[in-house]
Specification:
Pfam families: ARM_PUB, PUB10_N, U-box
Radius of gyration: 27 Å
Shape: globular
Low-confidence stretches: 199-203, 225-242, 321-337
Enzyme class: transferase
EC number: 2.3.2.27
Structural class: mainly alpha
Distance between the termini: 56 Å
GO biological process, one term: cell surface receptor signaling pathway
Largest sheet: 3 strands, antiparallel
Pathway: Protein modification; protein ubiquitination
Number of helices: 34
Mean pLDDT: 83
């Protein structure tokens, strides 16, 4: 049974780390995605405690953990598909996606209900956190995400009307986060994956997707006419005319392309034609006249698939060798070319001038974000030590690219160790202290990603990250504050980092965030204070900030989660402290605590009941 438990714990750790390392979602599913990621992350302390426990467990515990493993595996697969899939397809199928999130939520809640926690060797703090997470899954169970009415209406009008209002596509561009040519190129890659994975028989709505993509591109080009020069990669259009579309012709030969490839400027050419151009000694892009950063040629699978579909639908003979390519999977057939492009970029990183290094780091940043295969290839090619060196670059943009590339690479579990072993933590902390705001935000996110590995929590804290994270929490953008708070919360699971955070002065800024409900950081502030209050130094520092009035007010009027955390903090502060109990009594907290003990979450009920018992003891002594 011991080996079975150990294997299960390792698998659960990998699944939670996989979810924790996922990038931010920028699709119509963002809210469902973010809620699920946040809740799954909070399961980490449970697995960590189980990993450290030597207590033998029975079949009922193993069965419960196996159900949790299966449900988390389903969650990871769903999250990956949402984050890497077509944004347009997601919008068209949002009801199905909402149902999938609902099903996964129910699976996890059922699994958590089957685990006999009374038989587990876990701390009280972890037990309370798991009860909180379980309550969140219970509340989410059976609640379908409300549809975006405007989005649904715009999609319907775009498909039905003969000549849709351009404002429809402007709104869709914003809602779907398809605002730039780069956004549209990434969307076309996602559509390519869909076409290829279907084995040449794509979704029934493919023509609608192609139509919307073309209209959105027209909208983006209208809003940004200066980007017209970058328009060459027209993988976004699918016609049904027997006349060969210009977008399917090579700009050099003007013939229908059979092996389209992309050069470093983003333009697409027939491989044989552009190769002849390069062999003649040219160093520029024929269409834009821009200097090529490298001469690697990357297959344009999107356009290749669209050409194949157009040929089939219009009775045109497929170009030679075209038919067989459509069964290839993304990242398989093009791996050699992708590797050649990556090696060329690494040469620029190592030996290029500052401008070339900046451009190469930027391209690696995008490649690492695109898919899992790229993250593995980039690391295997030796990019990580070179990117770590660029963290010290005097060029702010290069530094931003380098730290963000490392963030994207750290999504891969194996890359986390490589990044740390390359000595990155002190340099990332330095970027967190002194970089541009974007670099600081991404440095905070990188530290959070690395901190999912237990030993890294210690190293990150020892490198001085916590004071810098506190500074970002105070002065950052809303996104930067969220990144800083998430990192601080995760690091504070380690006791030594709780002390560091308290001694670095985290409590006053947390109290300021707590007193600013319009700032959007109350949830994070209460969650961090709750974990700090479990330590004696944290409890003392919080008590000195006179938190009782705001805590009582949150218990009266806050959200269920915030009321729960406020009650937990109040219980920690009042336990063994008569003065805090008297202040709480004088604030008239009894009524709010009684209501919470009857109607709150399980943890909130227990904490509120405990505080009420302490208040009754004080009343008895005073009387």
């Amino acid at each position: 049974m011991g080996h079975q438990k150990e294997a299960l714990i390792n698998q659960l750790t990998e699944l939670i780390d996989g979810v924790s390392g996922l990038p931010e979602c920028r699709t119509v599913s963002k809210r469902m995605y973010s809620n699920l990621v946040r809740r799954v992350k909070l399961l980490s302390p449970l697995i960590e405690d189980l990993k450290d426990s030597d207590v033998e467990v029975g079949d009922d515990v193993v069965n419960g953990l196996e159900l949790l493993r299966l449900s988390l595996n389903s969650a990871l697969e769903l999250l990956k598909s949402v984050n890497e899939g077509s944004k347009i397809l997601q919008a068209l199928q949002i009801d199905n996606i909402s149902l999938r999130f609902l099903n996964v939520t129910e699976q996890i809640e059922d699994a958590l209900s089957d685990i006999p926690y009374n038989k587990l060797d876990i701390s009280e703090e972890v037990r309370e956190q798991i009860e909180l997470v379980h309550a969140q899954f219970k509340r989410a169970k059976g609640k379908m995400e409300s549809p975006d009415v405007q989005l649904v209406r715009d999609l319907a009008m775009a498909q039905r009307e003969q000549d849709p209002d351009p404002m429809i596509f402007k709104r869709l561009s914003e809602k779907l986060h398809l605002r730039t040519i780069n956004d549209l190129k990434k969307e076309s890659l996602a559509i390519h994956d869909m076409v290829i994975s279907s084995g040449g028989d794509p979704e029934d709505c493919f023509e609608i997707i192609a139509f919307l993509l073309r209209k959105l591109k027209d909208c983006v080009m209208t809003e940004n006419p200066e980007m017209d020069a970058l328009e060459g990669d027209k993988t976004l259009i699918k016609h049904r005319s027997p006349v060969i579309p210009d977008d399917f012709r090579c700009p050099i030969s003007l013939e229908l392309m059979k092996d389209p490839v992309i050069v470093s400027t983003g333009q697409t050419y027939e491989r044989s034609s552009i190769q002849k151009w390069l062999d003649a000694g040219h160093k520029t892009c024929p269409k834009t006249q821009q200097t090529l950063l490298h001469t690697a040629l990357t297959p344009n699978y999107v356009l290749k698939s669209l050409i194949a579909l157009w040929c089939e639908n219009n009775g045109v003979e497929l170009p030679k060798n075209q038919g067989t390519c459509r069964n290839k999977r993304s990242g398989a057939g093009g791996s050699d070319c992708d590797r050649a492009a990556i090696n060329a970029l690494l040469t620029k990183l190592a030996n290029g001038n500052p401008e070339q290094q900046r451009a190469a780091a930027g391209e690696l940043r995008l490649l690492a974000k695109r898919n899992a295969d790229n993250r593995v290839c980039i690391a295997e090619a030796g990019a990580i030590p070179l990117l770590v060196e660029l963290l010290s670059s005097s060029d702010s943009r290069t530094q931003e690219h380098a730290v963000t590339a490392l963030l994207n690479l750290s999504i891969n579990e194996g890359n986390k160790g490589t990044i740390v072993n390359a000595g990155a933590i002190p340099d990332i902390v330095d970027v967190l202290r002194n970089g541009s705001m974007e670099a600081r935000e991404n440095a905070a996110a990188t530290l959070f990603s690395l901190s999912v590995v237990d030993e890294n929590k210690v190293a990150i804290g020892a490198a001085g990250a916590i004071p810098a994270l506190i500074d970002l929490l105070c002065v950052g953008t809303p996104r930067g504050k969220k990144d800083a708070a998430t990192a601080i919360f995760n690091l504070s699971i380690y006791q030594g980092n709780k002390v560091r955070a308290v001694r670095a002065g985290i409590v006053p800024p947390l109290m300021r965030l707590l007193k600013d409900p319009g700032g959007g950081m109350m949830d994070e502030a209460l969650a961090i204070l709750a974990i700090l209050a479990s330590h004696q130094e944290g409890k003392a520092a919080i008590s000195q900030s006179e938190p009782m009035p705001i805590l009582v007010e949150v218990i009266r009027t806050g959200s269920p989660r915030n009321r729960e955390n406020a009650a937990a903090i109040l219980w920690s502060l009042c336990t063994g402290d008569v003065q805090n109990l008297k202040v709480t009594r004088d604030l008239g907290a009894d009524e709010a605590l009684k209501e919470l003990s009857e109607n709150g979450t399980d943890r909130a009920k227990r904490k509120a009941g405990s505080v009420l018992e302490l208040l009754q003891q004080v009343d008895a002594v005073d009387s």
